[in-house]
C-alpha cells in the first residue's frame, strides 16, 4: 500500500515494524509519519550499497566481502525491551552473532533482509561500529564496536538514574534544612547567662 493512502494508525504501525521497536514513536500527523518512514527507508537502502556481492561461478552461490563500519562518534542510547535492544545485546556478546542467528532469535524473528536493514541502523542511527569476520562454519559473524570502557545503557535506565539523583538531592536538601531548623530552635531555647539572672 502506498504511504499516501495509509491511515495515521497504519503509518504508525508500519514505522514501528520497520524500526523494530514495540514501544516506538507515535506520530500525530500523517505528514510526519510519512517523512520518518521515508527517512528510515533511505537508511535501510544504504545496506545494499554497503554490501559487496560476487557470484561464485563454480558453486553458483553468492558470496560477499566482510564489512567494517567504524564508530560514528557519540553513541546514542536506545530504548530497552525492544527488538533493536535485543540486536545490540546479541552483537555485543564475545561470540557476536550472524544475520541468521539474529533473525531466528525468538525476540526478533525477522527475515534475513529485514535483519540486515535493522543491523545497519545500529550503526547509522545509534552510532556503534560494526565489524564482520568470516569464522568457520558460522560464516559471517558480526560484532559491536564501541568506545573502550563504554557501558551500554538504555533510555529507561538513564531516566531512572536522573530520577534517583533528583530524589537523592531533594532528600539531602530536606535533611540539611531539618538540621538547620533544629540548630535554630536549640539556640532560641538556650537559657540566659547566670550572672545576668542574679543581677535581675
How would you describe this protein?
The protein is an alpha+beta fold. It is built from seven helices and five strands; from the N terminus they run H-H-E-E-E-H-H-H-E-E-H-H. Strand 1 (53-56) and strand 2 form a beta hairpin. It has a three-stranded antiparallel β-sheet. Strands 1-2 form a two-stranded antiparallel ribbon. The model is unreliable at 51-62 (pLDDT under 50). It folds into two domains: 3-153, no CATH class; 154-185.
Salient structural properties:
single chain, two-stranded antiparallel sheet, 7 helices, 200 residues, 3-stranded antiparallel sheet, elongated, alpha+beta, 12% strand
Topology:
Layout lengths: L7 H12 L10 H21 L2 E4 L4 E4 L3 E2 L13 H9 L7 H6 L7 H13 L4 E7 L3 E7 L9 H35 L4 H6 L1
Antiparallel strand pairs: 1-2, 3-4, 4-5
Widest β-sheet, arrangement of strands: 3-4-5
Instruction: State the helicity in percent bands.
Output: 40-55%
* Number of helices, counting only DSSP H or I runs of 4 residues or more: 7
List segments where confidence is low: pLDDT < 50 over at least 5 consecutive residues.
Answer: 51-62
Strand percentage:
5-15%
* Mean pLDDT across residues: 80
Kindly state the number of beta strands: 5
The major β-sheet equals: 3 strands, antiparallel
The shape, in one word, is: elongated
Order of helices and strands: HHEEEHHHEEHH
Specify the structural class: alpha+beta
Give me the Rg, rounded: 28 Å
Number of domains: 2
* Spatial gap, N to C terminus: 98 Å
Amino acid at each position: 500500500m502506498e504511504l499516501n493512502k495509509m491511515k495515521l494508525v497504519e503509518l504508525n504501525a508500519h514505522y514501528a515494524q520497520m524500526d523494530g521497536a514495540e514501544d516506538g514513536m507515535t506520530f500525530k500527523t500523517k505528514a510526519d509519519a510519512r517523512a520518518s518512514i521515508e527517512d528510515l527507508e533511505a537508511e535501510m537502502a544504504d545496506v545494499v550499497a554497503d554490501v559487496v556481492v560476487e557470484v561464485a561461478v563454480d558453486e553458483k552461490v553468492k558470496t560477499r566481502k566482510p564489512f567494517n563500519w567504524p564508530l560514528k562518534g557519540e553513541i546514542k542510547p536506545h530504548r530497552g525491551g525492544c527488538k533493536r535492544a535485543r540486536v545490540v545485546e546479541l552483537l555485543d556478546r564475545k561470540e557476536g552473532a550472524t544475520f541468521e542467528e539474529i533473525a531466528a532469535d525468538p525476540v526478533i524473528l525477522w527475515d534475513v533482509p529485514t535483519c540486515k536493514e535493522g543491523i545497519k541502523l545500529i550503526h547509522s542511527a545509534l552510532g556503534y561500529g560494526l565489524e564482520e569476520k568470516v569464522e568457520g562454519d558460522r560464516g559471517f559473524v558480526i560484532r559491536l564496536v564501541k568506545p573502550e570502557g563504554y557501558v551500554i545503557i538504555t533510555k529507561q535506565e538513564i531516566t531512572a538514574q536522573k530520577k534517583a539523583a533528583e530524589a537523592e538531592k531533594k532528600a539531602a536538601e530536606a535533611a540539611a534544612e531539618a538540621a538547620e531548623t533544629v540548630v535554630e530552635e536549640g539556640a532560641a531555647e538556650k537559657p540566659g547567662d547566670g550572672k545576668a539572672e542574679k543581677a535581675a
